[in-house]
TrEMBL record, chains A, D:
One of its GO terms (biological process) is alkanesulfonate transmembrane transport. InterPro entries: MetI-like (IPR000515), MetI-like_sf (IPR035906). The lineage of its organism: Bacteria, Pseudomonadati, Pseudomonadota, Betaproteobacteria, Burkholderiales. Keywords: Cell membrane, Membrane, Transmembrane, Transmembrane helix, Transport. It comes from the Bacteria. This is ABC transporter permease subunit. Residues 71-255 form the ABC transmembrane type-1 domain. It is found in: Cell membrane. CDD domains: TM_PBP2 (cd06261). The keyword Metal-binding does not apply.
Automatic annotation (TrEMBL), chains B, E:
InterPro entries: AAA+_ATPase (IPR003593), ABC_transporter-like_ATP-bd (IPR003439), ABC_transporter-like_CS (IPR017871), ABC_transporter_ATP-bind (IPR050166), P-loop_NTPase (IPR027417). CDD domains: ABC_NrtD_SsuB_transporters. Belongs to the ABC transporter superfamily. This is ATP-binding cassette domain-containing protein. It comes from the Bacteria. SMART domains: AAA (SM00382). It comes from Ramlibacter pinisoli.
């Protein structure tokens, strides 16, 4: 049913389409402009040493400079690693979350182990990963996989646990096996949770990227940031951070656009 | 067969093998104030091809009774036998229409009906699936809504969807919990007739929970009247009409008599439950 | 008593003087109350100082980096990274000389003493640093990679060599920083926040005076100093190991430092490292060592 | 209604209470013993240099040694920081998640900004934090707060968005204001999501601990791990990691025990 | 007042000020196959103190109609005026009992009823709150379940809980969507009587959607029969009984006549909808 939330009711009187579009674009840009303004203000205020906060235009200049060089490759490598790590992590988190929610015995057995491991800092794990996986791509993917899996599994488990039993009951009376219940009831019903899990995992994976690229990365935004850190190149660090933010944002938007159809069945408030 | 006959003797009825047998079934639910008895020593049999209706006041324990047969609730005492074997869990032999429908919100109307047919346990051959789904959509008046999600259906349409989904897999047993409660009188009577036709053509054993005395009489071979909570069997009444049954039985004088009798029984039970008078004045 | 907020990295070469001075009371004698804050990397250390959380700091080779960007004044040298920076190779890697490193993977932590040393070493053998595959890792990871065989060579600083000695007895130390001394030297030392330095010359001098007393002990009775330090701050490291590590860096007496401050050797060495950072780290409009390093307070305080 | 899941139905025949308890304890311990065994096996196999993987008993010995010294203080400091960071982070995530779910206009405005910032690596933020918050406790808490907030907000937003509109409709017809809907409908209805958010945030915060204690931490498990890294003391690193894991596990268990009552109303499958 | 009178002329009825006025209300819902008309040019008035029932086939648009008055759905064309002002959103003046109940699962029975009374908008003084809640729990037969969560209630009990919650805040308007559908005949009739008492003592304007023709006649002052989807007004019938009304009207011969007449109308509508025959045979 069409829900009328307060936001709707407070909707402004109709305005021409073009002007509305313009208005919307303006609205989307507004917070970014505000941040940019604040950034300049901080520098201008003299509250912090300008040596510690590069000017936005300096960062932009550095961006343009890097864009002509390594940046594209860095972005590509990092995006690829994050994508792979999250894809693998969530693919495993879904069935594991299901098993945890479904098999009470297994839950008692595995749950503590998961809660133990998911808190371990990726940074602290790097030595172990090097020992077992070397310093190649595998090692970096393993770290991102680790972070994504544990971020995702808890969202999945909680999502699955909250499923209303009626649907399982119905499926049983229609003859569904455990596997069919998983594939045809739990999975579709937890699609929204899977999406949440992916979104959380994406965020966590990007945030873990720098740590993962502590393992001997020649390329990647994390490597870029670290190389720059070693030489105190603040403008490059900012370029790296901002690139991470925008790629993550783009991935998030793409994810939601691609999956909007998947949750069309849900009666939700937003 | 006498017009209004309390069920004679369980031992006597047992000559034909019981398909569903309640053996001294009691259920207690845990509450903050200790266990609450909901079903109390319920024993009766349902034989092959029988249509048994359960009537009793709201909240007495009817759904719980059905849930035991469905395999969703385990009795505290006693047991339910299905073809001689204790019920251990739900299964596709028993089609259930739940009071709260339980239509799958993530599937369209068509996919909901198709769900059971696509399972590995399905007895409906794939070739026939499409036809079955289309037919039930038509029968339920849902054809125009084939690709709608349940959130875009009206209450009565959701209920009809649940019915179609249960019928489509052709279970041996049908357990129906107020399946027509959200339908207008005309749709309801069409659904009743459809149910009778299904029984006729497929031969099912049915347990129906209903609040409509007319519906119980029109459809059942026997009617179990249960007491207020905890539900005990107040009486079991044989319905004196055979199958196939037509609308005309509504006009039969025995229909009116039976209705008056059952209403009276239920009224007594209701009164027992509502000792605390439902009056605003006091 | 004057409070001074001091940031430091926890290695004997960097914080040795401080702790000995604290223990013998040489800073207290100057009326200084040092508030010690430990850091793990030079970057955070410098940022904390520039941000105003620290007044002065003690660090390693990066002493020639940040001040060259106009942030902080260097005014005091602790030591020379003599045999503390080392280049190790696995025996199975077929690397016999520095020239063999061409095209090989070498792990190190960029921007640190080890990196500066590696750069010097490669250039000395006419190997362009661009011709090796530099693998930038934190030192723990670099050593792990080396031990596990993921990289054939590592440029490190003590005490990480002891791990390798223990675990890979066959690994070879190809060269250490002492080989390039005194043409090139990597120094560790102290820097102060610009405004602090300008406004608190007396405090700086007191720091130097306190430091000089500790330095006298270290150069005069190195064994005693090492034992003191080990007992107070490095219990985790066995005493013999610690002594060895301690001796790996070169400590000048106050008088020796004085000559080198005076004749510009210190400035030259700093400039060499700064040149490295300018080339590798892309510092624009780098400040010359002669500008960011001020020998005057030392020369004023430590008399011949 | 009582749900009978496959796990119930496969329940074993009743056994004496004492033996069952014993069995359960055994079951809970089993995976840990397995991990311990695998650990020894890795060492014994010779596949990785024993120098890179300390023996469990060596780690235990180091633990006992540290326990007599700094460890208690480290654990206490870290726990405190994580607790504070998560408490603040989630407290903010709940109302922000609500606003995102509730006010469509605000969502378009703020959502991209949140998705941008939540991907930024805490490690990369350290310089900024030092600049703005110094090197005291505040700085560490800010990093943990940052990580918790962004991990929590997305779970909250998704949870709130999935609320069925019927409850909001009902509340409106009973006269609830926006604020009352938030406090009396959204919050209770999202308690399960809040718990998920807290659990996710706890995991993320612990995983971020080492990064946060890169900022001049004299005490704390992250500091312990870093100090040990500087000298390649693998056994101490392991002690630190394992302590983090177990404290996180304990916090998780405590959280769930404390809040089990809060979700008693839910009809859920686990 | 004639026994069975289609509503004469909207203009004529408008002499008494309308409290709820439908003005050419149409609603289209977007579907994959383009907009689907659900309400079509509905115009009628409900005056102060009137009790209007809506009857029509399942899925025709009754709930949609009510949702417009409730402020949950905005008409595609036309508008609904509430005391002369267009409806802009839901409000506590209009108490709604939804077809799907919408009881708050996280609150106990007591807390559910109390919910509206504890809001800032509540007109019930805090001192009286406890009494109101206790009384409604008793009236609804829920006293024993005060601290139960809804998941532990039977279907009928949930429905009664929704009724109690709506009554407790004493709204001026009551919008009820099949409020007694899940109740047994006796409980239902008790609830009907309770509703009549509430009207009598509090003076409300009521819009009731029901599938029970008897219920509509027993309770309403006017009955609106709507057509199959898209719902148009088929006819509006004045009920010739005054208030207070007693069980006895069921025996009144006019009751039977009216029932037959309305059944006939609804049957015609149903038949129109179900051109596609609901028969298995074909
Ligand atoms: N899981 C449960 N825990 C505690 N009490 C329960 C549970 N399930 C049902 N009950 C209680 O058992 C009683 C009977 O419930 P049941 O649903 O069987 O009633 P019913 O006869 O189907 O009523 P209705 O006609 O209203 O649907 C009710 O009082 C209900 O509160
Ligand atoms: N949000 C929506 N989007 C699309 N179609 C809708 C939506 N809500 C309702 N419908 C459709 O509108 C029609 C009328 O629905 P409504 O719920 O008003 O019927 P109703 O008269 O209340 O039926 P019932 O007696 O079965 O409850 C139905 O065909 C339904 O599928
Ligand atoms: Mg029931
Ligand atoms: Mg409806």
């Amino acid at each position: 049913m069409t829900t009328v939330t307060s936001a709707d009711l407070a909707a402004p009187a109709p305005v021409p389409r073009a002007r509305r579009l313009l208005g919307r674009v303006g609205l989307v840009l507004a917070p970014w402009l505000l941040i940019l303004l604040a950034w300049y203000a901080v520098r201008a205020s003299g509250l912090v040493s300008p040596a510690l906060v590069p000017a936005p235009h300096a960062v932009l200049a550095k961006f343009l400079e890097l864009a002509r060089g390594r940046l594209a490759a860095d972005m590509w490598m990092s995006t690829q690693r994050v994508f792979l790590g999250v894809a693998l992590g969530v693919s495993l988190a879904v069935p594991v979350g299901f098993c945890l929610g479904w098999y009470r015995g297994l839950r008692g057995l595995i749950d503590p182990v998961i809660n133990f491991f998911r808190a371990l800092p990726p940074i602290a794990l790097i030595p172990l990963v090097i020992v077992y996986f070397g310093i190649g791509e595998t090692a970096k993917t393993v770290i991102l996989f680790y972070a994504s899996f544990f971020a995702g599994v808890i969202v999945m488990y909680e999502g699955i646990a909250q499923i209303s039993p009626i649907f399982i009951k119905v499926a049983r009376t229609l003859g569904a096996t455990d596997l069919e219940i998983f594939g045809k009831v739990i999975v579709p019903l937890t699609i929204p949770h899977i999406l949440t899990a992916v979104r959380v995992a994406l965020g966590v994976a990007w945030a873990t990227l720098v740590a993962s690229e502590l393992i001997a990365a020649q390329q990647g935004l994390g490597a870029l940031i670290q190389d720059a850190s070693a030489f105190f190149q603040l403008d490059t660090i900012y370029v790296g951070i901002i690139c991470i933010g925008f790629i993550a944002l783009a991935m998030d938007l793409a994810l939601r656009a691609a999956t909007r159809r998947l949750v069309a069945w849900q009666d939700r408030i937003a | 067969m006498s017009l209004v006959a309390p069920h004679p003797d369980p031992a006597e009825a047992a000559t034909a093998p019981a398909r569903i047998r309640f053996e001294h079934v009691s259920v207690d639910f845990p509450t903050a104030r200790g266990p609450m008895r909901v079903l109390d020593d319920v024993s009766f049999d349902i034989r092959n091809g029988e249509f048994v209706s359960i009537i009793g006041p709201s909240g007495c324990g009817k759904t719980t009774l059905m849930n035991i047969v469905g395999g969703f609730v385990q009795p505290t005492q006693g047991r339910v036998l299905l073809d001689g074997k204790p019920v251990v869990g739900p299964g596709p032999d028993r089609g259930v229409i739940f009071q709260e429908y339980g239509v799958f919100p993530w599937l369209t109307v068509r996919q909901n009906i198709e769900f059971g047919l696509k399972l590995s346990a399905s007895k409906v051959p794939a070739a026939q699936r499409e036809e079955t789904v289309t037919r039930y959509m038509r029968l339920m008046g849902l054809s125009d809504f084939a690709s709608h999600f349940p959130k875009h259906l009206s209450g009565g349409m959701r209920q009809r969807l649940a019915i179609a989904r249960a019928y489509a897999v052709r279970p041996q047993f049908l357990l129906m919990d107020e399946p027509f409660g959200a339908l207008d009188a005309q749709t309801r009577s069409a659904m009743q007739d459809l149910l009778l036709e299904v029984l006729q053509s497929e031969g099912k054993t049915v347990l129906l929970i209903t609040h409509s005395v007319e519906e119980a009489i029109y459809l059942s071979s026997r009617i179990v009247v249960v007491t207020a909570r905890p539900a005990r069997i107040r009486t079991i009444i044989d319905v004196p009409f055979g199958y196939p049954r037509a609308e005309a039985v509504h006009e039969d004088p025995r229909f009116g008599e039976l209705r008056a009798h059952i209403r009276d029984l239920v009224m007594q039970e209701y009164a027992a439950q509502a000792r605390q008078a439902v009056r605003m004045s006091d | 008593r004057t409070k001074v907020k001091v940031g430091y990295l926890h290695t004997p070469a960097v914080d040795g003087h401080i702790w000995i001075g604290q223990q013998t009371g040489s800073f207290a004698k100057q009326g200084l109350d040092l508030e010690m804050v430990k850091f793990t990397t030079g970057l955070e250390l410098f940022q904390a100082m520039i941000g105003g959380s620290l007044d002065v700091l003690a660090t390693g080779a990066v002493l020639s980096n940040f001040p060259a960007r106009g942030q902080g004044k260097a005014f005091l040298m602790n030591n020379i990274e003599y045999a503390t920076a080392q280049l190790w190779v696995r025996e199975d890697a077929g690397i016999k000389t520095l020239a063999d490193l061409k095209g090989k993977q070498i792990s190190t932590t960029t921007g640190t003493t080890a990196h500066v040393f590696l750069d010097t070493a490669l250039r000395s053998a006419k190997v362009d640093p661009k011709d090796v595959k530099l693998v930038n890792q934190r030192m723990t990871e670099a050593v792990s990679s080396f031990i596990s065989g993921a990289v054939p060579a590592v440029a490190l600083w003590v005490p990480f060599d002891s791990v390798i000695k223990k675990q890979l007895p066959n690994a070879r130390r190809l060269v250490d920083a002492s080989a390039f001394f005194p043409q090139a030297a990597i120094m560790g030392g102290w820097a102060a926040r610009n405004d602090f330095y300008d406004k608190n010359q007396p405090v700086i001098k007191k720091l130097i005076a306190g430091w000089a007393e500790a330095n006298a002990l270290i150069t005069g009775k190195p064994d005693e100093a090492a034992e003191m330090l080990q007992k107070a701050q490095y219990q985790d490291v066995p005493l013999p190991d610690f002594k060895e590590q301690f001796k790996a860096s070169k400590y000048y007496t106050n008088a020796e430092w004085r000559t080198r401050y005076q004749d510009g050797t210190v400035t030259k060495w700093l400039q060499q490292v700064t040149d490295f950072f300018v080339a590798t780290g892309g510092i624009q409009n780098a400040v010359k060592a002669s500008e960011y390093f001020d020998a005057k307070p030392f020369l004023d305080t430590v008399q011949a």
